[in-house]
C-alpha cells in the first residue's frame, strides 16, 4: 500500500535524475514499481503515484484541455487501446491506494470505479463510451497526474497514435500525433549518432505485458509551470531572458529542476505501448538543501555540452545555474571544457540528390509532377519511361498544391489507386511534402512512396499558434511571418512526414512583445 505524500515530503519524494557527475543521453531504463532510494528519501514504489498537488494538477489539466483540444487525440484504430489503458491504470491505482480507490467487476463487462479523493463513483461498461460519459483516455487522465501517450506497433515501428498530454516540456503533442517514435526524436542531438534512439526503439518493441519499466528525463523550467508546450511558448519563452537579470535569491527560487518519470508499459489486451509521463519540479533553493544533490547538479550543469543545453532550452542560464549551485556550497566547480563535436540536427528530411529508381515491383504507377521547374519535368519523364515497361502508368501534371483545383485533382487520383500502386512525386519541397502527406492520408505506406525535391526554397509550415499548415518561403532555423495569424514564428528543424509540415512557434522577439 502507498500513502499519499504530504507537501513536506516533496523533497523526500523528488526523483533526482543524476547518478553521475556527467550527463549524456542514454536509455537508462530499469524495472518499475520498486523504491529508488535517494540522498533525501525515496520514490517509485508504485507505477502511479499521488501527492498533495493531485487536485490542483487535475484542475489545471481540465483547464488546458478545455482551452486546447489538440492536447487530446485518439486515432480510430486506437480506441481499444484507450480502454485497455483505462482499466490498466484503474487497477494500478486500486492496488496502490486501496483506502481511497477501488475497481470492482460487477459481472461481464460491467465495472464500478470509486475514487474517494475526488468523490467519484462510476459504473460503466467496458467498451461503451456512453456509459463512461467520455472518451476513456480523457476520463482516466482526470484521475491520474500523469500525461499519457499510446504507441501502436506495426511494420516494425512504433507510432504515437493516441494520448492526452497537457504538461509537455517544449514539444507539441498535437503536431507529433501519428509520427513514429524515431521521427519524433529526430531533432534530439547525438541520439542517432550514438545509437541511443535505435537501442531504445528496439527495447520498447520487446516489452512484454506485466513487466513495466521506467526511466527519467530532465530539463529546467522557470517558475512552477507545468505547461511549457510549444503552443504556449509566448507565455513562457520570455522567461529565458528575464531570468538572466534577476537577483541571486530570486534566481534560486524561480529556476526549477524539472524531472519526468516515464513509465513504459505493454498493455495486456490491445498490445499497445503505454507511455506515462509524470512531471516533478524542485526549485534550486530547495534542491541545494540536499548537499549531494547540490554538488552533483552543479557539476552536471557546468559540464553539459552546448548542443544538449541548447536543445533543452537552458543554454541562456545553464552556466548561471551551475555557478549558483556551486556558490550555495563550499565546493568549487571547474569550468566545463566541451570537446565533443556538435552535429547538425537530424530532424530534417533527407532528399536524394538524384531521382531515385522506380520500384518496378508495383502493381501500377502514379507519377506526380508539380511545378514548372525543368528538373521536375525531367525526373517525371525518366520515371514514366521506366514505369511504363513494368506496368500500368499514369502521369499527373499539376501547377501547385496551393490551388484548390490541383489539390482536389491529386486527392481524387489517390482515392482511385489500388493496393500495390507506387506513387512517385517530384516538385518543390512544399509540393512534395504535401503530396506525400496526402498519400499517407489516403492509406499509402512508406514503401510505396518515392520523392525527388527540385527546389528547397519553400516548405509547408505548421504554426503551433493558429494550428494550421501554410506554404512559406524559408528554411528551418529561419523566422517568417505566419500567413494564418501574422505572428513572427521560427521554423524548427522538426518535421512530421505524415502531417507534411515543419513545426513553427513564436520567435523570440514575438514572444517577448
TrEMBL record:
Protein name: Dimethylamine monooxygenase subunit DmmA-like C-terminal domain-containing protein
Coiled coil ranges: none
InterPro entries assigned: DmmA-like_C (IPR048037), HODM_asu-like (IPR021848)
Pfam families, per the entry: DmmA-like_C (PF22289), HODM_asu-like (PF11927)
Residue stretches spanning the membrane: none
Ranges of residues in domain Dimethylamine monooxygenase subunit DmmA-like C-terminal: 461-503
